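Why Cupin domain-containing protein? Reviewers of the renewal asked for a concrete example.
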Amino acid sequence: MAYVIRGRKDVVNFPVEDCHDGEGTIYVRQLLGYEPLLPVPGNPKDFDSLINFMHETTLPVGTKIGLHSHEGNEEIYYVVEGKGEMIVDGEIFVMDPGTACLTKSGSKHTFSNIGDTELKIIVIEAVFDKKDKKDQPVAGH
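Here is what the prediction returned.
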């Protein structure tokens, strides 16, 4: 098929506890592709390119995605609403709506909701090598 159209109403807003050893429950809508490190159903055959996934993630007030590294992939966080704190390799950045952060291979980052409202982000990950393409669904999903 030459296209994939999928919206919020088409996917579950899936709760993820203590993401990457973070704090609290965040919610992930796996809009396109698949991320096997999260217990969220996905569609691993969506992308023909080396993009693994695109998801919308909601971080309620006080929640945090824990420190995790990227090896052989890059990840983009784009803030849609709310206020977040991104720490990449020890450097701290405040991210407001319209701000994007690209975490490159070899880096580690964490992301927290530091505002007084929920934080909504779009997350996209791509790999460099086809062998690292995540195309196997989690058992039971």
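Residues 12-132 form a domain with the Jelly Rolls fold (CATH 2.60.120.10). This is the kind of structural detail the renewal will allow us to pursue systematically.
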